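Q: What would this chain look like folded?
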Amino acid sequence: MENSLKYRRILLKLSGEALSGPQGFGIDPTRAEDIAERVEEVRNLGVDVAIVIGGGNLWRGRGGLERGMDRATADYMGMLATVMNALALMDAMERRGLVTRVQSAIEMHAVAEPYIRRRAIRHLEKGRVVILGGGTGNPYFSTDTAAALRAMEIDADVLIKATKVDGVFDSDPVLNPQAVLFDRLTYMETINRRLEVMDSTAISLCMDNNLPILVLNLWSRDDLRRALHGEPVGTLVSA
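A: My prediction, written as C-alpha cells:
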C-alpha cells in the first residue's frame, strides 16, 4: 500500500470553520472527531501528517478592525484562537489513539511545545501527528501563509488545503450551479485570476519553492485517501 503513495508527508491546512457546527461558530466536538477519523485513515497509510488550523470559528479580526481595533492586536487574538482549536483537535485525535503534539509559534509552555523545526520533523519521523498553532507568530500574516511556511520547513511533499467544496472553481459554486471546476492551475493563473485558493503571499511562497497545493473537499468520504495515491481529486496548483 505504501509503495503506491504519491505523497508521504503532508501539511493539512484547515480553516477554523472546519471545527464549527451548523451555527458556523465555536468548536463542535463532533466535527473534531470527524477530522480525527480522516487523519487516522491517512496515518494508517503510513503518511506523515502535520496540521495548521485557522481561528475564524472563534475570532474574526475583521470585525475588530471595522471598529478601530489595532491590527496587530486583532492578529494576536486570532493566533491564540488557533491554539485553542489545536488543543481541541489534539484531544479528539488522542481519544482515537493517535499520538499528537501541539506546537505553538507563540510560547505557552503550560499547554503546547514551542515551535522548533527539527523537533517537529522528529515527531513526524516517529509517527506522531503535529498540530502547528499560533500562525507564524507574527501579525499581518495569515494562517495560509503559516501553512505554506511550515510545509516548506518540514519538507512536506504537498500542502493540502481542505475545504467544503470539491476544489477551485471559476466562481462560487454555492451561488452559481454552473461554476466550472479546475483540475489544474499554475501558481500565476491562481494569482492573476484572483481565485480564492489561499492568499497571494502563501501562493507566492509555494511558487518560489515549487511546493504543490492541492485543494480538495475534506468532507467527501474518500477524497483525501484517493489524493494521496495520486488519483485526480480536487484542484492541483503547481508549476
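The longest strand covers residues 9-14.
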